[in-house]
């Protein structure tokens, strides 16, 4: 089963933006096999809004390889999407050779082939 990286990145952006996470999100992040400190220090700059997608660092990819992305994607809310780019998360996941499966949902987006589409019409 493909491991998604998005949820982890979501927690990173929230932490960097100074948004406090409810304790249940922190617990969920731990259950999703997140190395939060590593994720924050290694991947945050690659998923923040604004700016174009940028190739992630090798260290970020190492963190992504350990993350359970489908699990983390379930934690991405509309509020979180104000601070991080789900499209950038998908880009980084693909760049780190951990692409999302077609049909996977992350936040308000769904993966169709190599593209993300909004689930909100």
Automatic annotation (TrEMBL):
Coiled-coil segments: none
CDD domains, sorted: nsLTP_like (cd04660)
InterPro entries per the UniProt record, alphabetical: Bifun_inhib/LTP/seed_sf, Bifunc_inhib/LTP/seed_store, NsLTP-like
The UniProt record lists the keyword Cell membrane: no
Domain Bifunctional inhibitor/plant lipid transfer protein/seed storage helical stretches: 12-106
Keywords from the UniProt entry: Signal
Signal peptide span: 1-28
Name of the protein in question: Protease inhibitor/seed storage/lipid transfer family protein
Species assigned in the record: Cinnamomum micranthum f. kanehirae
